[in-house]
Amino acid sequence: MQKSTSTSSLGSDGLDLSQAFFIPITGGTPPSPTKRHTKITVVGVGNVGMAIAQTILTQDLADELALVDAKEDKLRGEMLDLQHAAAFLPRTKIRASLDYSVTANSDLCIITAGARQNPGESRLNLLQRNVSLFKHIVPPLAKYSPDCIILVVSNPVDVLTYIAWRLSGFPPNRVIGSGTNLDSSRFRFLIADHLDVNAQEVQAYIVGEHGDSSVALWSSISVGGVPILSFLQRQQIAYEKQTLVNIHKEVVQSAYEVIRLKGYTSWAIGYSVASLARTILRDQRRIHPVSVLAKGFYNIDGGDVFISLPAQLGRSGVLGVTNVHLTDEEAQQLRNSAKTILEVQSQLGI
Asked: Please, what's the b/e burial string for 248-278 (b: 16 or more CB within 10 A of its CB; e: otherwise)?
């Protein structure tokens, strides 16, 4: 498949109408060198990849969007479908190709591609196939965009973010996993629903593995700046710890419920990843719980491991990890979550 994009060249002689249609301003100067051209690549045009691409376009986050996939017809079809919506969207050049050269000079490369589990296949074997797939994805991204930030969305996201870091040769601040950013959004929604407030007024994090061993940081939850648990204690309001456990379980199970009902998740992860892209590319320095190289933080040791921690993100990727106060129980749960990922990596022999 050849690289394809919108074009101003029409007619059998390839007349470039953009040169004939507009009369240039006399004495005009070139664009300011401070004007930045922003390019995002999305690898994988399945349900998740296209939800991310669509959200990036509607939120005007890039001047250029490159799509890459191994399925030629699907890739071209998705590209054309997005291009045909140009009249309803901010101006973005959309390209697509099987060839990774289309991704050259990207600022942000988002990886959503991943193998699907076959009937009867073990999770470990599935992970091994995804590791093999990443060996064909990450090196060309690093080759054509050596200064980019890689954002991994494919699951299991923590292990695959570690693989992407190893394969890219990038410094750890420029390889990030989407991690528990969406889990934390679900967490905030459920707490807001219990308290009947806007979810934007809730500050709450799920950290650790994006999976069953994730950790809900109850001690740091605040609503409108008011720490919830300490407020309940001061007011001598009793609460059941099991209620908190049940809310966390609902967060963990919510993705499975969506998959059971509609077959896949797409829109929420699309918005979640777009929020990460905005924070990074616009240097907003917001704090997101994302998968980062965690060794050395919160007394996590035992090897290189990527798990979600509340991290400040900006134009250079991960700027730092927030020093959130954890209870002894939360800190131990976080270390146990890291050990879970390290055990999986050891089974893979990496």
From this structure: beebbebbeebeeeeeebbebbbebbbbbbb
